[in-house]
Amino acid sequence: MQSVTIGPLGKQDIGCAALDKTGATTTAPPKPSWSRMARVCEGSAYGKCAPDEHCAPKPSADFRQCVYLTGLHACPAEGYVEQFVLYEEFKDERICTACTCGAPQGSSCSSEISLFADAACTTSPWIASAGSDGPTCHDVASKGRALGAKTAAPPVYHAGSCAPAGGDVEGEVALAGPRTLCCLV
Q1: Which of 59, 97, 113, 177 could form a Cys-Cys staple with 63, CB 3.0–4.6 A?
Q2: Pick from 113, 116, 126: which is nearest to 147 by CA?
Q3: Under a CB-based contact definition with an 8 Å cutoff, are residues 111 and 127 in contact?
Q4: Four-CA torsion 128, 132, 134, 138, nearest 10 degrees
Q5: What pLDDT is recorded for position 112?
Q6: pLDDT band, very low/low/confident/very high, at 25 (cuts 50, 70, 90)
Q7: Does residue 54 surpass a pLDDT of 80?
Q8: Contact 108, 11 (CB under 8 A)
C-alpha cells in the first residue's frame, strides 16, 4: 500500500439545553422595587392665621407640608402647587419567554485508526487519524506495506457551542393605588 484514505466519521450532534444557574429552563424577571419611598404623616392644623385659614407648624428639613388626595388629581395653581404621585402597590404582570438554544456549531468527532500488516492484529500497528470534518489521506511511511486488518478506537465527541435565544421580558409592572400629594414649595 502507498497511502490510506479514511472517509469522514459520522457525527450526531448532542443538542444544547437552555438552563439557568438553578437548572430551570425559564427564569422569572427580577422583582420590581420602588425607586422612591414616601411616608405620609397626618397632622392637625391649629389656630387661625388669617380669616378662614388654619395654621400648621413649619415641617422639619426632611419633611414637606402637603395635602393628600386619593387617586390622580391636579394640584391647585397657588399654594400647594408641587405635585407628587405615589402608588400603594404594583402588580407584576411580566414573564420571561422560554430560553432556547440554536443548533450546535463547531462540533466534531475524531478517532485513531490502527492499521496492521497481518490479519490477527499482532504486528505493530501504524496509527492514522480520522475526523468528521472530511476524508483524510495518509501516506504510508514504508511504501508497499501490506494491509491485513484495521481497528478503530471509539470516536471522541468534541462539543461545539450553541447560540442562546429567548429569555426576553414580556409584559409590564402595573402601578396601583395612586395617591396625589400637593405640597408647598
Answers
A1: 59
A2: 116
A3: no
A4: 0
A5: 94
A6: low
A7: no
A8: yes
CB 105 within 8 A of CB 11: no
Residue located via cell numbers 414616601: 38
* Cell (9 digits) for 63: 419633611
Q: Is the pTM of this model over 0.85?
A: no
Q: DSSP letter string over 68-108?
A: EEES--PPPSSSS-EEEEEEEEEEE--EEPPPEE---BS-E
Give the pairing of strands 169-170 and 66-70.
unpaired
The answer on pLDDT for 161 being more than 70 is: yes
**Residue 136 near residue 129, CB atoms below 8 Å:** yes
Closest among 118, 104, 135, 129 to 16, alpha carbons compared: 104
Residue in the block written with cell 484514505: 5
Q: Is the per-residue pLDDT at 139 higher than 90?
A: no
CA–CA separation, 49 and 27 (whole Å): 59
